[in-house]
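fyi for ur records
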Amino acid sequence: MNPFALLRKWLVATFAGCLAVSASHADQPNIIFLLTDDLGYSDISCYGAQKVSTPHIDQLAENGIKFTDFHSAASICSPSRAAFLTGAYPQRAGLYMGINPIRDAHWFLGLHPDEITIAEQCQQQGYATYHVGKWHLGTEPEFMPRKQGFDHTYGMHCNYSHSPVLYDDDDVVFKKTPLDQLTALYTDRVTEIISESAKSKKPFFLYYAHNYPHTPYKASAKFAGSSKDGVRGDMMQEMDWGIGEMMRALDDAGMTDNTIVIFTSDNGPNKNEHARPFKGTKYVTHEGGHRVPFIVHWPNSVKAGGVSAANIHAMDLFPTLSEVIGAELPTDRVYDGESLLPLLTGGALTRSPDEPFFYYNCENLQAIRKGDWKIHLPRSPQQIPFWQGGKGITTLDEPLLYDLKADPGESKNVADEHPEIVTELTKLAEQTREQLGEYGQRGDAQRATGSIYPESPVISHSRDWKQVPAEIAAGLETERARRRSAPAKQEKATPLPKGKPGPNIVLIFADDLGYGDLGCYGATKIQTPNIDQLATEGRKFTDAHSASAVCTPSRYALMTGEYPFRRNLSRPVFLKTGLVIDTEKLTAPDVLKGAGYATACIGKWHLGFGEKAPDWNGALKPGPLELGFDYYYGVPVVNSHPPFVYVENYRVVGHVPEDPFVFGKKANTREFFEKMGLDQIGGADAAHALYDDEMVGTRLTEKSIDWIKQQGKNPFFLYLSTTNIHHPFTPHPRFKGTSQCGPYGDYIHELDWMVGEVMKTLEEQGVADNTLVIFTSDNGGMFNVGGQNAWDDGHRLNGELLGFKFGAWEGGHRIPFIARWPGKIEANTTSKTLVSNIDMLATFGALTGTRLNQSQSADSVNILPALTGNPDKPLRDHIVLAPSKLGNISIRKGKWMYIAAQGSGGFTAAKRGAHAFGGPAAISYAGYENSDIENGKVKADAPPAQLYDLETDLKQTTNLYQEHPEVVAEMKALLKGYGLPRVAAKRNPSTKGGEEK
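which gave:
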């Protein structure tokens, strides 16, 4: 690229600005240029649409002027846009091909930086300039909107099918833009620009280039089925709604009278029915490919209700707006348009009606319009652009001549009747080719095409790419690889306009607490009055699930809103594992912190520390603080596995350099049954001494209370992740013997006390009524030895549900879930809606008014409606649930539960008394009935997978795999769509027993 291009461009624009007619900001109108994509002449009501209703666009025409003979400069996207912004034919401006970042011949091309756009004209006159929507004038950084005169850009670099990424300046908002949200997203940004501009008192130029109705498209649920023209019509009506919102924002800001709104399309539609009464579509040079709606709304300057048949075109926009804002046209280049200002303000167009208009299709001059005459010129197969294909005229041996006044549909060839016109226009074509070029012929007046690789020739037709020298092609490929290997831009949440602050949030995440472990869920051997009180004062969910039946992946889902199996994460991690969440990934605490919340994680972490492995003698970084938490204090791994210490923020509490951690040395820590790995890492005696297993619950409670008290009136989020009731069961002595099922129940009693202390603190601080409290568990109850003993005492960990922690049966992942928020959540209610801990990300986004994109929250569903509204309204189509072994991954849809293999996919030790007692043997011991299990084993003739009707068989007694093959096929197809890993994650080599056995 010419290293002096930007300097030259600045000098030209500055010179033009110096010559410009000065005007005060008060005299300068705001400008909104609204360019739709592939919208045809008869696509809106005021131009004859019958199947859609576009009242807001019609209102623009009713209060402005409508043109019936307006032409885009090209029948495809990129060149059409170049003409609008530069005032020159695309061939003159050097951009006459469709830019596609995938195509070898075009990815490195774009609108040349030497070109001066109308945005740059506006900048020189003191305007703030914005681009919203599709760009499509080059996808490399050198050609982006902010290199072409725009202060800010929000939208997509090209067609959705080329790249579905949506950007906010340089930040990625969506890696895969949700099509049904696109109009709302653009509308929000446009109205935000208007609102901010009203405050700044600075005139603005907004180039609003909507992607629609270019395919693919999808209307939001609000507009689905609203038209008589299918999905396309629904989307058109939603787009019209967005324009109405834009106009309302102008009204609210008092800016309508001083704002020019121009509405048009870049080219014709995909189907001729939307271009009538004209012939042709997008891609071709019949009228239907070029003639599109054009409306100008400018109160007090343009007479309302006007209709003009003047022949005007896209290149007229640049000189028109330049004159409006008082900017002279730069004198170092040729422009192909003329200012429409006299015509708009009641005068006449000074251009002769016989001035020709040239219909190019890429480099091929295919037609010329002069007055009412239009000639289609002969063309060979080589001259046909790759995008035209079989559309319209392909090859043509003899010219075709049409009288557009008598025959606007181009149906009657009158070439034989008017040979003199044919001769005149054919001669004009030859002159034009000398100036503006032809396929294989460079024109004298053509300016350069922008290129990041000037060594390569400009190849408009992909079929000709093979003619490029091998060394040039190789060099380009190397450059493309280099650029694509650069670190990818990360997605960020987009805050909505700030409103009232949301509630405080306390999320209490218990460990291994089963569905039947609480009094309000049916426990009789255990008393949980404080947790039961939450249910009395709030809403209890009976169909809540953890995304995984295992500790670490369940926490991953809670933090990220993403299924952990997408990262091949299905097992716990331990003392040698680095942070399992990418620090660039948006998390639930990120959302809340971005909304102004103070955030703290207190308790069990179990998601790893460090880039590759924790440095227990140094800074434990990255960790919770890199994922959105302001403060962390707690148990770094899990209370059953080393190191048995506390971590505060980045450091082990009590650690001193002269007493380091030592791998392979036995830790100086208390020993309890089912406390494991004491000989894996020792040393750090002072740090170990501060950790007393029976005091952990008390310590975490005290830290939580202190942190809440420090927050004052600021909104806060507390994630209290308890070690209760993960083994070893080590309640404070005051709780020992208080239940009827041993240490297991005593540990739950301590958990209930912890909840009561937190609630008491909220009351004392006067914030209880403005705090959303969510209490839930990371997975189902575990049938370890302590759990087995509780079972023998008559306690049913998971109620009547089949299975235990680690497994795919209901007992492994159906969990307690209670939400309390006085005045918002109806007290003493129950919900049967299917929800999951993976839904916290989307719910917190909705709660705080933070817009999340689809890739950030693809697996997370906003369950706020189930919390504060109808408790039984379905919110999700299905959910995927993962056991420890991904071969047994399961999917729930409606009443159906499908498990992809036999057994539970969890622990499989066959004898009572084993820590890892599980699977069919444990089910038989516990007395559950299941049609596939007999004498502690899966029957030899059992089906290969499992299907249960949970509506009639919540206990999963009967496998219906054979009876409903159509349901099985549907479930398999759903799972296949997730591209599941072939194998589960490898076991952590540092583990010597316990949960990895």
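The two ends are 61 Å apart (CA to CA). thats all i got for now
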